[in-house]
Amino acid sequence: MSPFPVDRRTLLGAGALAFAVPLTGAAAQFRGDGVFWSPNTSSYPTAVDLKANYQFFTSDEAAFVEAAALRMIPADPTGPSALEAGVPLFLDRQLAGDYGKGTRLYMRGPFGKGTDTQGYQAKWPPAGFHRAAIKAIGDHLGQGGGAPFHKRAEADQDAFLKDLSGGKVDLGSDVDGKAYFKLLLQNVMEGYFSDPIYGGNRNLAAWKMIGFSGARYDQRPYVLAYNKPYPLPPVGIGGRPAWTAKG
Amino acid sequence: MAIRNPPVDAVMIGFGWTGAIMAQELTDAGLNVLAIERGDWRDTPTDFSPAYAQDELRYYWRHELFQRLNHDTLTIRNNAGQTALPMRQLGSFLLGSGVGGAGVHWNGQVWRFLPSDLKARSHNLQRYGKAAVPDDMTIQDFGVSYDDLEPWYDKFEYLCGVSGKAGNLKGAIQAGGDPFEGPRSREYPNPPLEMPYALTLFGQAATSLGRHPFPHPAANASRAYTNPLGVTLGPCTYCGFCEKYACGDYSKASAQTTILPVLMRKKSFTLRTNCEVLKINMSADGKTATGVTYLDEKGQEVEQPAEMVFLSAYILHNVRLLLLSGIGKPYDPNTGEGIVGKNYAYQITSSVNVFFNDKILNPFVGAGALGMITNDFNGDNFDHAGLGFIGGGYVGILQTGARPIETHATPDGVPTWGLAWKKAIARDYLKTTTIATHGAVMAHRGNYLDLDPTYKDVYGRPLLRMTFDYTDNEHRMSDYLTDRAAEYGKAMGGREIKTNYRKGSWDVVPYQTTHNTGGAIMGDNPRDSFTNKYLQSWDVPNLFVLGATAFPQNPGYNPTGTVAALAYHAADAIKRQYLKAPHQPMVQA
Ligand SMILES: Cc1cc2nc3c(=O)[nH]c(=O)nc-3n(C[C@H](O)[C@H](O)[C@H](O)COP(=O)(O)OP(=O)(O)OC[C@H]3O[C@@H](n4cnc5c(N)ncnc54)[C@H](O)[C@@H]3O)c2cc1C
Ligand code: SF4
Q1: CA of A53: how far to CAs of A49, B275, B327, B354, in Å?
Q2: Which of B88, B359, B404 lies closest to A106 in CB terms?
Q3: Which domains does chain B have, with CATH numbers?
């Protein structure tokens, strides 16, 4: 038996809370007992609930994100669009959780506008940045009674996103439009190509479109299969749709 | 009142690659060793479970295995004229945290430096004259030779079970290996990994151009292997979730898979996790390190006396702890005086994508160090006369696993989103490969580390500040390598290539490498270096600084082979010399 009755999971992030919260009376100390193992503490990811409504986005925000994601990955017979892949729901769940809150990010001030090479300098974590940027975009496009993004023609939407990515849209002193475009595109790609357990890449369709094999662990038979199509369909951490009974 | 623990013989600050290597060696020598690690205990079955290890979002993009920047980060700028801002999100490099350190999520690319890399200053002066090394290029010799390190390179390669093919055995060049490498005393412990299609195509193209391709030396085991400590690694399954991920298969060498099963059983070794060292304590005369102060998992301050103190916290944390502890004179780029923080360097990378119409490459089959490489343009393996730069790098393909959020390159002229992007990625994903260049960064007067005047960590202490940019030397060298990569790409005979030069200033956003170097460099005299060749501080003889902190500049190879060799070289000297005369310098100043 291990003499170290420490719940490792409660120690996660212990450093950050060190002054505020004494976590446990036991020392996280290991001596002479070999490689320590605590069964049943493995931390599996939690599958998102595909049926529930948006948790983070307001309806206006959702309208923008759905429309913008659809321009980034439009519908056509090649494969799923961002909407068919479930990207907006993915992003909603991400922004409602730790990622959106920026729990791992350094979010202390002072905040300044950096050079491009200094990276993320928004004064909000990703959730707040999306919220502020979507509002600023709405205000910008609404000036003089202009139509909101999602009501515009596709060509118009494309032109706006292009300008945004090129730093040509002034969204005020707080919101860096170019930085926001980068974040949105990154998040859309994440939703399209990540494991379906997080709500995007529905039915593994984005992986099927490109031919990615997914969460497989033994690829030895295929290393020397030169120029041969990979014989297996993609699989996710939670399996694949064909394994789940319909109903 | 701080709690005071009973003294130990040696304390390791941080328990990644270097901490584990040194603890193993010193406990073997009979010492009582304590390692203090700020992160969690992590083991393969619990934390790297193959049931869910292949998760690109969680591990790479959400950084689950890496340092939490909300706790501490560093500030960054390209030059002293700018205001440094915090690295709020990880990007260019991925700092480790927890048992095993960054060694848990490395690729396993194991290199030796060239004999001439270790003498960068004297070698280049001798071959190319004074003009080749401008005044502001503050490069130095390491103060240790290839021959000094050879046994210790060998020891690390056998610890890890490196899969590769020797190119130079005791001076005799071997077919199929790297003909440019320094002489090895014996073959690699395991044969190379199997080479997938893209790598074979690259090898053929490079050979047709008269270059010398060979399989990348890999700490991804090509077969089951039991190392000299008696620990067994399993054969790599080419799962393609290797670098930036942990191995669930006991195939990638790390502290967990090579040392801990032995070290963790020793009664003379203690590990404390979730304890963060705040500073190194010094005697009143500043000549002896008396131990460390750390915060335990309950947030209490604990004083830990130790006879010997080892910084093994990764280069950036090593330098910061020296500065926070007031040890050594901080470097001043204006006067060139001071040593702590001096000669910070990095790596410069670029790439060429090759798109085929008719070749299915299955790029998701991969391993962290599965590669076909040429060193024809690394270090001083080629004549630099008239080129306007010194140094070089390797050029080759590493098929590490094309996880699609990260890897979805499209050809020139195709935008990064929209219908054209979608059609291109659907057409090209399986038929694209990427030639990488991995170049040296020389030390420069204006590139350095110090403490930030504004930004603080979670405890209110100053963050480290990094001032860094590429100089003309790096850009010229990298462009030269990129042009060579484009030649290879064309010779591979695909539909088209796309050439991605490294342009402009160093950028913290895209991942490049976690090969930060310098800041407490080694050398042959105390004026120009912080440690002697045994990584022993010149001024504080019972303080040792492990890691790439010691590199006076960064050659064109990945660092950890040399980082480990330097640690073993130091451990050997400690056992043979230091323990007989503790607290004495092992090299006379
Ligand atoms: C994605 C990736 C790929 C890489 N690939 C390669 C490769 O292929 N080849 C190669 O040569 N190198 C590679 N590297 C680099 C390699 O991982 C490092 O060189 C190596 O791990 C350095 O060993 P170290 O002991 O100096 O630091 P680490 O292994 O990082 O260990 C340092 C430890 O110290 C702890 N620590 C820090 N501060 C404190 C404190 N104050 N108190 C207590 N503990 C502390 C940290 O939590 C950490 O666990 C890669 C790195 C990354 C991130
Ligand atoms: S590629 Fe091989 S060494 Fe790397 S994680 Fe997968 S099984 Fe382990």
Answers
A1: 9, 42, 57, 43
A2: B88
A3: 3-580 (3.50.50.60)
